[in-house]
Design a protein that fits this description.
The complex is a heterodimer of chains A (315) and B (366).
Chain A lengths: L3 H28 L6 H15 L5 E2 H29 L4 H30 L10 E2 L4 E3 L2 E3 L1 H23 L1 H11 L1 H6 L4 H26 L6 H15 L5 H25 L8 H14 L14 H8 L1
Chain B lengths: L5 H28 L7 H23 L9 H11 L3 H30 L4 H21 L9 E2 L11 H27 L2 H11 L1 H6 L4 H27 L1 E2 L7 H13 L4 H24 L7 H19 L13 H32 L3
Classes of the chains: A mainly alpha (315), B mainly alpha (366).
Chain lengths: 315, 366
Amino acid sequence: MPTITEFINTFWVGSIYFLSAVGLTISYRVTRVLNFAHINLMTIGAYTAVLLSLSSPVHVAFAIPVVFLVGGIFMMAVHFAVYSRLMELKATPLVLMISSMGVWIFVKFFLYGLLGYLQKAWKVEMYLAKPRLIVGGEIKVEGLTLSGDLFTALALATLAAIFLYVFFSRTKTGKALRAVADNPDLAEISGISHSRVMYITWFIAGGLASLSGMMWALFAHATPELGDTLILQLFAASVIGGLYSVPLTTVGAYTIAAAENIVIATLHETIGLEVSYRPFFAFFILLVVILVRPPLGAGGGLPYRFKVLRRLMRR
Amino acid sequence: MITFDVIGFLLSWFTFFSIYAILSMSLNLEVGYAGMANFGKVAFYGIGAYVSAYVSMSIFLSLAGLNYPLYSLEATMAMVKLASQNPMLNVSVFILTLILAFLIAGAIGYVIMYPTLRVGPAFFGITVLSFGELLRIFLRHYEPTGATYGLTGIPHPFAWIEDVFVKNLLFTSVTLIILILLFLYAQRLVNSPLGRTMLAIREDEIAALCMGKDVPKVKGKVLFIGSGMAGIAGCILAYYIGSINPNIFVPTVTFDVWAMMILGGIGNNKGAIVGAGIITLVDRATAAINFVFPGLIIDPNFIRWMIIGLIIILVLLFKPAGLIPQTYTWTPAWKIVKPLEEKAKRRREKLLSPFKKISKWFLMGG
């Protein structure tokens, strides 16, 4: 049977996945770029926290805005340098996706090189670091320690959810984002600045993703491969939301976290499945979602929903 | 002073060039012609390599009547002896595994198509990318193929030749011949009706569907061929380096192939080969730099990967068509129409030339 730790980890990891996947969903909806550079953001967020707390421990309340700003500004810079220019050239979503892959590789190995240099210059272990953030609020219940990191992750996820809800339903900017997501041409005619909306979207998506990277570094470690190891989980969570809906993405994030913690712990005890097969669950969920409830129309798909089934039934 | 082995360098470059040229050509068929963003090329490459290593080693060991597990040290030691005994067996096993790698990798590609045929390129990309990553995780834990250590002692098809130089020369020329055959096949494929259907799907999937083309079926076919070609490349790699392990087949290999294809030109088989040539040359050169100047502050490998990322971005930004842009399709009809069109053009110019002279006269002001 899964212990209480697995349930706690589900909420903890689920919140981290939510913070990151929601940014992916929003940015895909508004900008039509399937952003592989989103993966870098988590690494950047983690290492910003590491560098902030290199000489002396820093309180988490100070680290959060800094990390958010760094991630947001990084993503805006990427948009300025690459995506906005490609959008001006009327590039297809496929080309934008490929260019985001180029950004991903470039930034990943730039970080590798930079961290390797810092490691040699400052004599600090960089490839496996942990941010030294001061997080208060540790609670001990019946021999179980609930760390402050867990509460920070939960609080951040809740705050982000509330912020997004208010932002998209009450503010004028949020409504402009939704308008651009639904119909960019109509929004342009109505006087909404396309480029401004893009920059705001990237700022929010980048900030949230880098925060989730910082939280993941507190949960595990910061490595240059941090984002790459989580890519499948993030994309699976977003696909459950159809790259379309923020509430469904939330469901997806917590479902995948549950499958990776509770289900695998149960299977490990009953049939002796190795824990390192963890990513297979996310892939399995991804395939099931694509087969059972394909996000039609999203990503340039075709409406062949029941064509294959019908052909099988005819035989 | 280290003497630089020019011929050895060329031979190793040509072998890697043909492996990567096959890969980038197959990716070009999928992306450049059918518009399917395959981010998991490495999966089919790995499948081809593992299939050929597994099949060839088991054939050799079972013919010798040895019953070691393939990954064991005894098997590796026995393979060294067995590989140089029977020339006919070596070559026929090589040909058999080439065919098997093509078929098995292609079949897996066809199966992978099924869940993704209804969703767009974005979802297809994600699914295939994660498939490649999961295959690597699976191989790292799968005992029969040696888990993390992989398989060692794959019998070189020309292991019976004593002279190392002749052996390598023969192998490199065989890989180049395979590359040329696959290139001719790909050229013929893209100029066929199937190739034109692929182009139609790339340009507008819905229009192709409305014209009565079975889009999922065509996509499945293309993925079968593309994955099969990647399997052949993996097979050649397995025989060339003689031992494989899961860490060769990391996702970054896929990006290498993408950079080659984008640099050479999307939708052009010649471009894919040119791109592969340039990037493998840079790659071999960096390996040489790493060997000559060890202990640089920043690892040259990281710089090399940054350059790969930059190539993808910059080519898409400033030269989206690549080095060799896509040209018209050489159909039989076009072969007839092209001379006629040129003839008409010449005639038009001849007719218009007096008027042009007059207009020039007016423009010059008398």
